[in-house]
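>> received
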Amino acid sequence: MPTSRLEATSRPAFLAPAGQSVRLDGPLGIRIRVRHSFAVTADGVDPRRWNVTTLGYFSAVLDADDRELLAYHWHRDGHSPITFPHHHVGAPAGATDISKLHLPTGIVPLAAVIRLVITELGVEPRHPKWRSILDSALRNGAAE
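>> returned
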């Protein structure tokens, strides 16, 4: 029995070993690589409830050759002095390299990245009600 609406789909979710990308359906061969760090803690009041807090994320949209087109990062701790949510934009070969800039953003939820690759990059949705599922995720606090 599925535990969520997404698990009820007939096609598998995109999962890959750490650091590897997954090809998404569509004519451009768009790929995605995701790392999401979070903490799960007991509610403290209701033992049936749990709280999930995002500690950081890395979501990258890649071309068919695994070159980064867009990346959304939020790493609160680590080696970089940049600890605020930001994105990177890949540049075509020979262009000025802007891929190392840390362009500030608000928190960018994975649901927003999925919507981007579907609506802007021609990725085929895997669920017929993808739009309402993503709308609901964004409305109901999947903003981290």
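>> Confidence is low (pLDDT under 50) at residues 1-12.
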